[in-house]
Amino acid sequence: MNLANTSFMILASILVLFMTPGLAFFYGGLVSKRNVVNTMLSVFVMTGVAIICWIVIGYRLSFEGDLGGVIGRPLHLMLTGINLNALTDIHIPIGVYALFQMMFAVITPALFVGAVVGRIRFRFLLGFIILWSLLVYYPMVHLVWSPSGWLARLGTLDFAGGTVVHINAGVTALVLSAFLGKRIKFGDIPHTHYNLPWVLLGTTILWIGWYGFNAGSALAVNTVAVQATITTTVATAAGMVTWMILDMVISGKPTLVGICTGTLCGLVGITPSAGYVSISSSLWIGIVACLASYGFVTFLKDRLGVDDALDAFGCHGVSGIVGSLLTGVFASKAVDPQIALNGLAEGGGWHLLGIQTLATVATIVLVAVMTAIIIVGLKVVIRMRVTRAEEESGLDQGEHGEVADYTVPVSNNLAAYESDPSEFGHEFEGQLARLKRPNQS
After folding, report:
1. Which segments of 312-387 does DSSP mark as H helices, in order?
2. What is the pLDDT of residue 360?
3. How confident is the model at residue 123 (pLDDT cuts 50, 70, 90)?
4. pLDDT in tens, 260-291
């Protein structure tokens, strides 16, 4: 066992797990007060459901054996028969690698929750998560990250999850939104955010956790991990500043939600190429990914007619697509000698860009078709959308019987609080005793 690599991967796994509660704060701060509990619970529950699914069968379907280059061969349930202490080529235990990949299986379905908040039944979401993990996520992992996967053999480059995570979650979010339909009051009133400081807190946690996501995907303490750390930082900063400038030019004011969204787009955009590109290339990737997502969210989303509540597709899907394609432009063997081809801008010609384009399109089609099939089948047994009354009152009460705030609002009528304390003597007997005159019994 290489102790440095193993320690690094355990830390990276913890950082990726940290992203899920961070995402809960990010989404929870963006929604209305009536749906905060439902949104945060729907995200955080992935840390339970997805982990169990991964242990029971997910790891085997992703990495053990091969069926047609699409899925693994689940000969046994759980992790029985797997020597978790056996070492990989970079001398980390298989158990640690399985742990690291488990955290990706947790955060990926949490991403598309933002598209459907406020109107999807929690029971339907639970059933969907399980079926989607089995029929969409695990096959995507096998296709791209298993050596026997079809897209992997084709030469697809996806350093930390452009196709497997972000395009996958983004397209799923778009299809779910289309089947659910628009919110009842969509477009009627300006959207109000529950807690903007939570949005900033969630963004910060996501950025910190993303170093486990991207640098950890080097799977070792090496120069590729260092490069991924730097390119992640630069692209994220570029995304943040780009969105801020666009807000200032187009709407006249920079916004906290805007710079947090731009930060997220920069993180997503660099993910598929973090260990393959130069620092200057990462700057351009962050800018272009943010421009594409801003353009979609601001100008194209309404024309599409799909109510993606928190722009899960607009951020993760669009920036993920851009990042996947730009990997075919900027990937460099000088940065990572293990890759087979240079990108277009690095003198490698069009071949890698063609591979990346094919992989991106294949991911979009596969995810869209399978997600639609799962939704249609699951709707037969579980109602997908809450009732109109539940949606109007909020899912916090309707689905969970809880609210985010238990504070009592203060009345504007101050006279209502100017009462004689003696009227409440039974409540304040000890305190009122001090107010009695000395000659009183």
Report:
1. 312, 318-330, 351-379
2. 98
3. very high
4. 999 999 999 999 999 999 999 999 999 999 99
DSSP state of 66: -
Instruction: Compute the distance between CA of residue 261 and CA of residue 200 in angstroms, rounded to an integer.
Output: 10
d(CA 275, CA 273): 6
Name beta bridge partners: 391: none
Cα 289 to Cα 283: distance, rounded to the nearest angstrom? 10
What whole-number percentage of the chain has pLDDT above 70?
Answer: 90
HSE at residue 385, side-chain half, CA atoms within 13 A, is: 17
Contact 202, 262 (CB under 8 A): no
Contact by Cβ (8 Å): 323, 282: no
Question: Which residue bears the tokens 């799977």?
Answer: 219
Alpha helices in 168-195 (DSSP H): 168-180
Question: What is the spatial distance between Cα 57 and Cα 105, in angstroms, rounded to a whole number?
Answer: 12
Cβ atoms of residues 258 and 298 within 8 Å: no
Q: What distance in Å separates the CA atoms of residue 72 and residue 59, rounded to the nearest whole number?
A: 9
**Residue that is written with structure tokens 């729907």 in the block:** 42
Q: What is the per-residue pLDDT for 411?
A: 46
Tokens, residue 93: 């235990």
Which residue carries 């109510």 as its tokens? 307
Tens digit of each residue's pLDDT (9 = 90 or more) over 151-194: 999 999 999 999 999 999 999 999 999 999 998 876 555 567 99
Instruction: Map tokens 């955010």 to a residue.
Output: 193
3-state secondary structure of 413: coil
Q: Do the beta carbons of residue 96 and residue 6 sit within 8 Å?
A: yes
Q: How far apart are CA 166 and CA 115, in angstroms?
A: 13
**Taking 50 as the threshold, does the pLDDT of residue 408 lie above it?**
no
pLDDT at 405: 82
**C-alpha distances in Å from residue 301, one per residue of 251, 289, 293:** 17, 16, 10
Cβ atoms of residues 215 and 237 within 8 Å: no
**In the 8-state DSSP scheme, what is residue 433?**
G
